[in-house]
Specification:
The protein contains six helices and no strands. With about 190 residues, the protein is mostly helical.
Length: about 190
Amino acid sequence: MLYSVTGTLVWMQQQAILKAEFQSLAADAARASRTQVSGTIDLYANIVTAVLQLFIAGRILRFLGVSAALALTPLTTLASLLALYFSPTVAMLIPVQVARRGIHYAIDRPAREVLYTVVTPQERYKSKNLIDTFVYRFGDAVGGWSETLVTRYGMITSVIAFSTLCIAFAGIGVSLGGSLKKRETRGADIP
């Protein structure tokens, strides 16, 4: 859910940056320019994802562990939020979104799937369905409410609030990775 909440905030920042960047253009030209930037982000994010998955993700999981892999996306999101706060430009938006999405899809998602290796198929089926439907949608809704937070309490208060969310998100990832390690160790001791 925290990934979805923070992702929605970054997406809302993206929309505001693109709108401000291309506001002087005619409506059709502005729409085309926003689409082109979004397409560029998607293209580079897919390339980064493929490269990371092929050459780096396995090494991170093997040498740094699931905890570190699960903490990468929230820490990248935190850096992204701060970078966009201090430099709300398309030049900053593109690398921020590419890094965030690339790390999420190449490292975070596979690390999350590793968490399911220690549960029964029934537990995996029930939890994945709940997470992939309700939790993600609820996270999107909560993230959408963040616009009210920004409008009502100001950007600096919002940055502090969302920084706290990202740190909590990273802490949960580290905790889940530690729980997995304990559960794997306990399972290895059972004859």
